[in-house]
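>> received
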Amino acid sequence: MGNSYAGQLRTTRFEEVLHNSIEASLRSNTIVPRPVFSQLYLETEQTLAQDGRTENDDEDDEDGSESNSPPTSYQMKLPPEGCCTTDGFCQAGKDLRLSSIASDPLDVPPGLMLVGVKSPSLPDNLLVCAVDRRFLPDERGLNALLGFSGNCMGCGEKGFRYFTEFSNHINLKLSTQPKKQKYLKYHLYRNNQGILVKGAPICWRGNDSRMRQIRSILPEGHLTSDEQPPNLALTQPSHIPGCHTGSHAEPQAADVPHTLINGNHAVPSTAQPPLNQAAPGRPSAPAGPHPNAGPPKKRHKGWSPESSANSVPESAVKSPPSSLALSTLSVSSVITNGARSGTNKGREMLNRETASVQSSSQGSSTPLAPPELSVTVPDQLLNHCRLQPVIFKGHGPLPHLTGNVTEVLVSSLLQSCYLSSQTLPRVYQHYGPSPIQPLSTEMQILLTVYYLVQLGSEQVPLIQDLEQIFMRSWRESHLSEIRQFQQAQTPGTQGRHYGIETLPGLPQHLSLPPQSQQPLTPSQLPWLAQLAASSCGEGVVVFGEEVRSLAQGLQKTFSRLMDGRLKNTNYVVIIVTSPGQETQSCVVVTGKHQCRALAESMFTPSEGLKEINLQLSTGVAQELIHYCNSLGQDGDMDSLLDSASVDPNEASPLSSSQESPGERKHSQSPKETQSPKDLHMQGSKDAPSPKETAPSPKDKCSEYSVEWHEVRPIQLAVARKLLSHVCAIADSSTQNLDLGSFDRISFLILVPPSEVAYQQTVLQLWSSGVLRELGGLEQECVSQQDAERYVVKMDQSAKARIDNLLQEAHRKSYTLYILVHDHAHWDICSSSCSRSDSGLGLVDQLLNSRQVKDAANILILHVTSFPFALQTQCTRISPYNEIHWPSAFSNDVDLYHERMRYFGVSELLESTRSGSSLPLMRSDSSFESMASTLEERFPKLHSAVIRTIVLIQHYCVALMAVSGRISSSHNLHKHTSVETMEIVQSLLTAAQQCPAHHGHMVLLRIPSLALAAWAHRRLSTVRKQLGLEENFEIILGNPSQALTIGRTFTDQIKTWLKIQDAEWVPHTYLELEALPCILILSGAEPLGESLPRSLKYCDLRVINCSYLHRTTLEQELGLAAYLVKAESRPPHNPGPGSDVIESDAEKLSSTDNEEEEGQENRDSPLPSSQPPPSCPESGGAEPPSARSAVSPNVPKGTSDTIQSPSKSQTQLQPQPSSQPYPYARTSPLPQHQPVVQSYPQIQTTSQLQSQPQSQIQSQPNAQPHTQTPTQLQPLSQSQIPSKSTSSSSSSPRTPSPHPSCSWVRGVSRPPSVLLPRALYDIITASDSSGLPRFSSFLPHISVAWASSFRPLLSKMMTCTEQSLYYRQWTVPRSYHMDSSNRTEGRSDNFHPRRLLLSGPPQVGKTGAYLHFLGILSRMLIRLMEVDIYDEEDINCNVQAEGVQYHPANARWPATDIMKTMPFDYIIHDAKYDDISVVYCPGFKPSVEGNPVRQEDVYLRRRTSRIKLSKYAAYNTYHHCEQCHQYLGFSPRYQIYESTLHAFTFTHLLLGEDIQLYFIIPKSKEHYFSFSQPGGQLESMRLPLTSEWSPDCIKSPIFTPTTGHHEHGLFNLYHAMDGASHLHILVVKEYEMAVYKKYWPNHIMLVLPTVFNGAGIGAAHFLIKELSYHNLELERSRRLEGGGPAGDVWPFIILADDSCVMWNAVDLDGRSGPMEQAVSLKHVLQHMEACPDLAQYGLCGIRKWSSRGHAGNKQWEPFSRGHLHDFLLLNVDRSQNVQYDQNRFTCHDVDFTLRLHSAGLLVCRFNSFSVMKKQIAIGGYRTFIIKTKMTDVPTSVGPSQYICAPDSKHLFLATPAQLLLEKYLQHTSQKLFPLSTKNYSHPVLSVDCYLNLGPEVTVCFVSSRPHSVNISTTGLLFSGLLLCFADAFVTSGFLKKFTFLKGATLCVISADRSSLRQTVGRLELEEQWRFRLSDEFQTANAKEDRPLFFLTGKHI
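>> returned
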């Protein structure tokens, strides 16, 4: 039933919507998630296939009325008896025919609309019915719900739920299945007479086969209105009752199918105002279409329109704010803009998509009028009227134009605006009982007249303004309805966003007719429009009731134009309101200025430049040039120049000085400083020329210093921010970037095809030191040619470079390649839409290729100041991968302590509002008036040609006037402007004020290359004729050419920069620092060239005013972005004019890359009421640069005057007591004259003269450093970029021979910017909220607005919110490179390895990303490196015997030889340098001891940074593809799938059954045997000794660990080189969960609960005893299986969790034994293959040291001694020797000594070594000793570890054994006083080794029978230590040893009774004296089972 193309609930769609809903909710906690199922309810987006059909077209064909499928047989239900069956009547007998009931009043319920039903039996009539609009499609044929709901308009029966049921009721009598698409045919509406008439056909998709054919044959995205068939009559898209009151008999062209962008129907409903908007003006996260408030599917009968009127909860619905946004056209209007003939495919731009009459006459956007209605364009229209009229199509078809059509332009721009403003989002169409209606045609026309009336005579209409007027009017007329969509807001925010705002398009005194009252009728429209137009005189003329058709109106307009009656008229509005017809309209622009501007805006930028080139090349502009050369009565420029030409050897008139500059300063009165106009002619003619003052060795400027490439703190912060984003990609679960697999980086920086930008990037890269960090370039100083390999211009040569990089990246998978796309907004054209010779589309072709996207080791970083074009609905960059330049200040707190502060666009804007007398940004009225006059005189010339020629003439005249070569009688200043005179005068005089001739730069921006070349030639000619060649340089900045300057100026720069290279020439503008020059910067747009800080004037008076996009405007203004000293601009009070771009902590604005760039645009200059900042600096707090800031020549009084200017200034001129912002204005005065108001902190001579003479004379010169702490530095020196310079203020009595350098003063303030008047008005305008007007313009030429009904930008938006706003409300045009990235809102649509860095122009982005490359390289190297303990062996005996036991190359130890080798009791591991030495008879210790305590070990142990080998062990942060399965990412097993198994065994020492737990992953269960599958764990499988496999390790590896779940090196996959092995982590019970989380695929042995507080001894004890128990079980299992019991492998490996790499000694090395990395597999297999290995109790390997064997002359491959960290333990032979389960420290020393004494062989393989990584946290050596009372660690001294029994003492919450060990370690000097530093008299320790501190020697002996002990004959012991003495210790055993008199005895037991029993059993009282006070216990509570010990003295 019904339509089948909507409401399809698919599984994939469900998953997508669910994902998007979750993602949207995660992005912001202020966004209400959109209900998933309400999104699914309507399938509002259809993907258009290449043939123009959607995916569901096949389904539509089944339902369409013109389907080719055979009709379905249908048996109509018989009507009930007695019912009426007459055609045209319903079953109740009521008439339904339109002809019968057209005049009857009909009651249409809310939410329903009248529809005409086509009856097969009544072909000439329609039946009237009411249908719920939700079940009808919109004007695009979309969004109709399945099913039907309607009422009968005859009998009034309501609630028909099925169209079958309804068709039976109205007697359609169908033979086929009733389908609403086939029979619901037309909208019905009432005309002006109230008669119900047939309206537009209902737009069922597929209904009109002709439209489908048109869709299929037109190119994608270009179904424009100009390309429709001329006979296709289309009417208004939606006819809502009460909305359109005019007659619809005349069809209109408004029902054109809407835009097809990217193959989608991109109409407003696909991007509606966010219903879930959380705050006014803040966009929601990018998401798909918004849900419609619709009924349930047709099967749900409980729904009715009335009940659902409030079905959308108020909390979930909200309308957009109504603040001002100046937009161009919405997406839905793209279709109606005519494609201009001759333009490239898709290259037309929205705000100038007007078509010439020729193209529109061939394919008009409206049905062509009949021939009798054609209009003839008069001949000679352009010559006669001197203008080319522009006709804006409005409502209705435009008549056909004939005759002189080339002199008229036709634009569909206005018509597109009308259409987009009437295309309501569907969400507004169905809400509430009174549906929201769009603006009526009449209201649109009236508002258009209002807008035109209030425009100034020189203003050009902006469609952006008009569109916003429509939107505001619509919002105000439906305010109550729209507010129902809002969530609850505060009254303040509601009023702010919905109150009436000051729009530039609508004067406040013109009230809007409220649409909620009586609608505006066509009959009222003409006289209301004429009434409005009457207020502006003849400016706007309205033809209304006097014209009957548009053709008549146009003919009348042309005739009046030819008669001259429209000379003072700018616009003619033609309105046709005929009864029974739709209202028609059009607008004819007849103002000369407006016509020219609109005509030029029709050109694309490239076409405009071609037109300029054509006019220059054909000589059309010569007449203008000759005209400008004439100066009227003052003569001719060329003749004056000829008379002024001089011999090159003649002195310049500039040197004809009658008085010195200093004298002139003295003689000038304060009053003269106020009149800049009187000073323009003085200039610098009194200054000496460079020839006369050639720089001598003494003529050096001490104030000049340049440092371009310092990295500022904020750049470091951004670099780290970039790095953190890269790490976030790597850390995410998507596995899109595996940083751990890369060992180095490489990069390629892509820059626009500008030679200067290329060289600038190369220079910065070379200076940054990044290349030296890459590791590939070892030389100390990398040449600049090396840097060129890493930078490429994006021209045709780039393809080969990137192809090479792709091939290299494919080969070198372990190298991470970074593609840095700098100035990323420059080329975003699609490669498919670009010509191969245009140079565009390269970025798309190269960076968006499949090879780059799929390469896992290529990362793309886009860098731009204008990211808007990359932030669309189809962007490839995730919003989470955007990095915005941060604010340098937060709540007035300096976050980065920057010395420089950024001065950008918002500060420029603020300078125009701050009340300064001369703002930094201004326009030139005299230039504008002259250019305007010439534009009228030369109507055929492009305005850029006229303005450029006029401007260059101004410069030439100013040069002539300032040079002094032309007689002053000629009054040259009348022929130039004040602004130009100031620029030229300042340029010429600046260099004369500095001994080194430092000057400043004037930037002249001329986009046309041809005009720029002409300007360069003309200025150079004039300069030469005036003899000024050596005063300043004129540079042509052509992007495609290298920088060229004269040899003289090159030598000057080399002198300043101290460059010795004779071949050196400057390549970048940065290197022109302080060079006096005029830089003519050409090119369609700036390409990222950075300008020097000597830039003083930025002349933008001839840039194009036609392209009003945010990016275009901001990048031109960005040329003036600047850095100033931070001290000179306080962070507070940013002013009201902060730009939208810089209003929060993340703000940014615009483009470019430069190391010398500032921070941030947020803080604006101070308003005039702000007092000057005072920054007291004490001498102690001054930085070094500040200390040397004041010149020694500045006396104290001078400094005082500098610091407190207000006192002297009040005497000079009346002004407010608070000083203006120091550099908020730029003075037109010559720079050698005092500009007191502008620069109050710069000392001038005239200021000094205003002080009392006695005060001046009392200030001696010899006080150079007498500034008080409260004084400020002079402003002129406090703002130098890198180094401070002096402020050479003049002496009060004798003027300095070298005046202060003007360059120094120049760099202390930003440059002045001169703009065209039209742009100045736009840029300085702001809306009622203070938002700059241009920030709401269309962001980029390559994108379009998604809807006119979008919310407006808010001033409070952050950069992230702006990004989300543009991502939601802009779509790429068809020629945008992202237009092919179609699946909207899909996260997988983002390129996973693509980042976007955005920041204001000139802020330092290049330096930031270069530093990022450096730290990324260092991080990767750091990831591949590890800190290894690198310590020499300690306690080495220099007199070691030189016996060689084994051959040096022996592979395995010989058992018989090992038995003969002496056991080395001495401990050599450096980690034990703070423990007691074990006594060995042959050892002689060094004299000096080592008193370092164990707590300090981590602070002093020596480490080396070693690069990881391919056989390293890794922690949890490593994840590579090879490791996935090893770590648990196995396709066979679900991750985290493991089982817990209990295992119980009994041990005598533990006294009870011990229950352990094994956590065994499913993938590791084959290592264990179970009673049955999934049953009880029986044992761990062990191999047989006879088994061997090359890919298998036989020994199980046990790693006890605590606190190292992240950092422990448990990933042995690479270390084992793929070998099969059994690895078991031994963890404490309380850490089980966290270890399981981090290591889900590892086997874990969980220690019993009682061992939670135990030390490493307990872990090793349980491992060893469990392994022996398991060995017995395995032997039993083998016996049961019939195998040999004794052949089970008895070895296990005990490995520390910090073992990272293993090495083997290569004896064949050239320089002796060399170590090389080997795998753990190699080490273990070698050791396991040792013959007679079963004879050994314990084997181990050496600990690595970088000094290795350098000191050993002989190499012994095997030795007997202590083993640590990595042990191969024979659990069978060592069965009777256990680890001490109570030990916390030195447990391995104790175990080795007892193992050796038991007669077991201990062998160390010296040919292998293990590297241990330094892990600073966690581990078994981390002990916290805290009191019992609190958990907070307190400083408890070792003396408090023990106490007397039964005493009141502070008990400690620490194990007793640990307290005892720590006490003995730290207090052994007191306990064993005779033993301190007495190696020959050690302490006798029986059966155990305890650390008594490094100053005490311990002699270990075993009491076991047949034990191996050292000979103690003749040895006198200084003490005896008995720790838990067992039955083997007897009194007879102790009597074998001799003790010194006074030796100390210490007996340790578990309790007091056993302590007494031990004393009695061993008869100790015979030889030892005890006192009652010598009994102690550890400081534990009774329940913690303290240990007791007794001390005594030997008698």
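>> The mean pLDDT is 76.
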